[in-house]
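Researcher: Excuse me, tokens okay?
***
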Amino acid sequence: MKHHVRSLVIAILLCSCPFLQGTAQERLFSVVAKGNLTTAARLFLNPNAPDALTRAQSVSFTDFLGYGLEVMYHIPGTTLSLGLSADYITSRDTRTITATAQRVVPVEDGYRVVPVEITGYFRIPITDGPFGVFMGGGLGVYFGEREYRVATATAASTGSRPGFGIHVLGGVQYAFTEWFALSAEMKFRDAQFEATNAFAVPNVRHGDILVTLPQKPFDSSIHTDGMVLQIGAVYSF
């Protein structure tokens, strides 16, 4: 009787606990939900200007947040994985421009970018157990648009050209169970793209000032080239 009870308890545990079910099989896929912090970016105001000094004029952004999702495939019997990820990153800054000798006008400038990247990962075999160290690199395409407003007038996005680039990263991961882990990584990339904006009105009023707005579409180039710090929750199946 004791033998049958023990067998029944073991069977119930095996049927009800995914962790125990997965001990004999390798989990090939993971989904990673990430939050990230990018340390720096630059928005070049005149990327197509003929002289170098005008082309170098830029607005800087620092320490802005984003989030993303990645699907990973773990190659059976190896320490290699392949991931496909997409992030959403946005940053804004408020500054002023001179309207008259004594008056300034507020400007809101910023952008949003969606990096889509393919990454190869290699788990460094320096430790066994729940703690792991990995490194990787890959290719990315970066879609985005600029958000620009002078006083209450918004320069709508009229076009954008995605950019392409490479990235490298390194990180650590700690597995609490076979299906859940937390990861932290440091990534270096230059997520750049070009954008075109245009005002729909010739001028805008700010208090008692009438500000003249450019009527031709204007280009800009955005480079999210700072270090990216990411924390992720990993679900494997």
